[in-house]
Amino acid sequence: MHIQKVENRVINVYQPFIDKANDLLTPLLEEKVEPIGIVETKKDQDYIHGWKAEKVEAIQSLKNHALGKGDSVIVDFGEHLVGYLSMRIVPVGSPPDAPLHVKFTFGEMPVEVSEPFSEYNGWISSSWLQEEVLHVDVLPEELNLPRRYSFRYLKIDVLDTSPKYKVSFENMHCMTVTSADQTKVVTLLHKDEMMKKIDEVSIKTLQDCMQDVFEDGPKRDRRLWLGDLRLQALANYETFQNNDLVKRCLYLFAGVPDEKGRVSANLFMKPSIIADDTYLFDYSLFFATTLYDYYMVADDKETLEELWPIAYRQVELALERLDERNIVKDDPTWWSFIDWHEELNKQAPSQAILIYTLKRVIKLAEILQDNRTSFLEDKLVEIERATVEHLWSEEVGFFVSGDLNQRSWASQVWMVLAEVLDHESSKRLLNKLIEENPAIGMNTPYMNHHFVEALLLVGEKEQAISFLKHYWGGMINDGADTFWELYNPNNKEYSPYGSHLINSYCHAWSCTPTYLIRKYDL
Amino acid sequence: MHIQKVENRVINVYQPFIDKANDLLTPLLEEKVEPIGIVETKKDQDYIHGWKAEKVEAIQSLKNHALGKGDSVIVDFGEHLVGYLSMRIVPVGSPPDAPLHVKFTFGEMPVEVSEPFSEYNGWISSSWLQEEVLHVDVLPEELNLPRRYSFRYLKIDVLDTSPKYKVSFENMHCMTVTSADQTKVVTLLHKDEMMKKIDEVSIKTLQDCMQDVFEDGPKRDRRLWLGDLRLQALANYETFQNNDLVKRCLYLFAGVPDEKGRVSANLFMKPSIIADDTYLFDYSLFFATTLYDYYMVADDKETLEELWPIAYRQVELALERLDERNIVKDDPTWWSFIDWHEELNKQAPSQAILIYTLKRVIKLAEILQDNRTSFLEDKLVEIERATVEHLWSEEVGFFVSGDLNQRSWASQVWMVLAEVLDHESSKRLLNKLIEENPAIGMNTPYMNHHFVEALLLVGEKEQAISFLKHYWGGMINDGADTFWELYNPNNKEYSPYGSHLINSYCHAWSCTPTYLIRKYDL
């Protein structure tokens, strides 16, 4: 182990873990994809974000478009892609007597090639908006853009050529990259077309997020987050079965804990591995549950034994956060994620996630014959008792969270997943939740996933299917080629970042329907 | 010879000539130059374009500037450079959780890093404005910009980082390139400091324009133009003595005439040699005079013999343009260059350039014992007689041009250089020109060069020195590190392109004072 200092933080680097992770790195799979048409986008309030993409010409005619100053064209690749764009740019007219100045704008959704990025005014960096402005000095040019993009639509704006020449575009293609091997996926036979489609879009979403690590979103942030990893791993076990990629990611997280042994919420992979300075209560615990899920599928005891101390340490640290009542201390800062929701109190769902984790960690401790097993078991009993005593409100029939006794969907869903109540009580709780619909709802597919899994856990299979089709099917009906980071059917413009331009429209935590459908045989 | 078709034009490609030119290509000389300070630009009407650059910090403090969204800094390299920019970009703060979006703006003059390029509205392509906007995904980054720039000032605008980090810049440098070997230049000993300075700036201008060919301007158009080549070659013979580069350029022009044998006004060198579709009466003739000048310096008879047919052909084609009076036909189009002047009639100066060329071509014909020598001599007599008969106005005491009998500076200057009148008459004509100052004046250093050489030809050495110091010294007093494409002391904002932002501030045709000073021992 050596110590790395990142801006006053101490990171303990376990090089053998990093080396093991790097040994598991394999070359990405590539595929050449060509565009399928020329489209125009039009304002239409019946479409998501108010923009509709309409095919206006066959792609074969692209090469006949001679574009000069101020001209533009939008090309449709027909599906969501993650990869590298190439094309040949050919001059038309006199020999080019000035450089070409050209802008490329990449859109996962029509809105991104319709509304100018200059109007973006959200709080996260505008540098995520996918565009390139460049000069080409010599034409013809075989242009190979060096950055990776996540897109379906490409808008080309010719900013200037010269009065003596224009340009046309030929041999345009994208070399896609992924670490997901499609041949490993068993085709789903399902009588319901929408369920088949949801499964397909889930798998495409997962595929495009599977790179050298499980990324959260290939457009943004292109990073390994623990919360996303946990769900991607579950979907992966049912589809691509790239278990080594899960193993690699676990070793990466285990390789760079902080001085207390805390696992970071996410890792940067370049220029070399760096643990982010964000630490989240729930995400750190998910290191342990992700290890549990991995072991249950892969039966890889060596990895379990090696990573067990790190997993156990996350539980220890979570237990340290308990107050004298055995309830996790609340906090006004971003200490636990749960969902993108400004008003959501995180206490009760975090308490539930601790319980959820403890139950799995106890199983791992038993497997490893760890002598702290009975300590964990005793602790679980105390915590579950405290949870019911302090967070369950008999009066309102809901778990409540924080000083203001907030009733939220998240609290109920996670308490059901943690199996704090008995089966029938959990079932009643979920049905009451649906019926009474408290104001603090769910914003992300991430949170909605947990709701559907909670329904399945209590045996409400029909409701689960119905909600899956309503929510993920809703995205498909709204034009999703891959599932989105954010979707609120009641507020389709919702963005926690201040603009739907910056949202990610292929996001790992939204890929779980394939897991739910296949695992629970929906 | 093979035939190349460029947009309905036929180009006769003489591959052995192209091959010979390519054999003369040598690697460019490189030098690493670091910036000398951090500057701010301020509005000040006492300075050219109304902008003054003021040093505000030592360059050593650059690395301490942490720049976030909206921040900028201007770096001064202390002298005009042509080359490739490199730097190290380092993140400051948390690990970068979003790409860096950054803009680099390059300025030969303070105005270019002070007024936004978005306000440019001139008629030639805005793509010449030197800026790059790019995303950097991984930091720290060793950035090596692939394009060549021509600049002294570099403005860095950080468009966005993220709220969690900023960036700083280290190890910034420019790797300059030139085919001019400074060690070949004999230092000028001169008692007049301004004359020494004019000589130095001339040489620097020439140096920065000498690349794989003699370029007209390293910022714009970066191209081999015959009119510029002729003057660069003259300055080169007195300084860097890279005669092979002149030879190379002559072979290039000779390698791609059109189907009539006409030499193009300029050549594109990339992706492979292409003759531009611009043909100019004066520039084509200058192929012959440039060959003459080269032979007189290099004494290279083999090249003279090989290129003689092409040179002779330019004269033949010019003679074909004579009307029955032996006067070149006027034309409202851009058929002859002479100067950047919208109202200038080109007839009389073009007639003079034909005579000027004929006198040199006759000398070459004699050397080669060409049996067309006497034909040329007879033709010269006829043309000179016609010129005096039809273009000289006894009434006004000036040569006149075009249907409206325009009196211009250019007509008189070129008639003097062509030695159409006797020595004393030429001298009187020039003095009368200065005294009466007709409205159609001179706009470019190119035209002003010819004026000074005309003064020297008639023995007005003091006037020549005085004008040299007034005109080129005026540019130095106005802040020139290299001489400018355009300078009108009476209208310093003049641009034939509609904006001083697009003017070239290191331009080959302005480098001639070193030739005039050294050749005429001023």
Notes on the structure:
- 2 copies of one chain form a homodimer.
- With 522 residues, chain A is α+β, with helices and mostly antiparallel strands.
- Chain A folds into 2 domains: 29-178, Galactose-binding domain-like (Jelly Rolls), CATH 2.60.120; 191-519, Glycosyltransferase, CATH 1.50.10.
- In chain A, 36% of the residues lie in helices and 20% in strands.
- In chain A, the strands form 4 sheets. In chain A, strands 3, 4, 5, 6, 7, 8, 9, 10 and 11 form a 9-stranded antiparallel sheet that branches.
- In chain A, strand 13 (266-268) and strand 14 (274-275) form a beta hairpin.
- In chain A, helix 2 (193-209) crosses helix 12, helix 4 crosses helix 6 and helix 9 runs antiparallel to helix 10.
- The model of chain A has no long low-confidence stretch (mean pLDDT 96).
- Chains A, B: Residues 191-516 form the Alpha-L-rhamnosidase six-hairpin glycosidase domain.
- Chains A, B: Residues 35-175 form the Glycosyl hydrolase family 78 alpha-rhamnosidase N-terminal domain.
- Chains A, B: One of its GO terms (biological process) is carbohydrate metabolic process.
- Chains A, B: This is Alpha-L-rhamnosidase.
